[in-house]
Specification:
Layout: H1 2-19, H2 25-32, H3 38-59, H4 72-89, H5 93-101, H6 107-132, H7 142-146, H8 150-170
Helix pairs in contact: 1-5, 3-8, 4-6, 5-6
Length: 173
Amino acid sequence: MELVLGLVFGVIFGSILTLAKVIRYEKQVSAVLLKDMTIIKFMFSAVVVGSIGVNVLYQMGLINLHLKPMMIGAIVVGGILFGLGWAMTGYCPGTSVAALAEGRVHALFAILGMLVGSMIFANLYPYLKPIIEFGNLGKITIYQYFNVSPYIIIVILAIFAIGIFYFFETKKL
């Protein structure tokens, strides 16, 4: 049942990506070049709304959280790899699959690149492990780290998002 729900929500999310036109290669490249912030605004909105949804469902006891250890090295390495892949292909994992589903065959090359990159990373992992595990803070959330309510972090995040959105709109990004 979890796999079916994952598929259903994945299709819904992909449909929203398509309707918002954020899977367009041109939008992706414009975001990387800091010329069009539609994708950044879309994802920032998803993070704020998702944060609220996850916390409400968790507090209602409808979901369990399965935290991974917070490792600074993993975040830095993952961010660099994600950014390089996005800059080189014009797609992130979600948008590449949605673009392929829409019939954009060139997205297949990005997907293949992600798969090959994942295999290379898996083979290099034993050598990268000391870098990846640097700064291991354990299984902790941001609000646990600061010892505050999750909603304080969400409000701060939402205020920051509104400020960023306002800035982007004034610059016509």
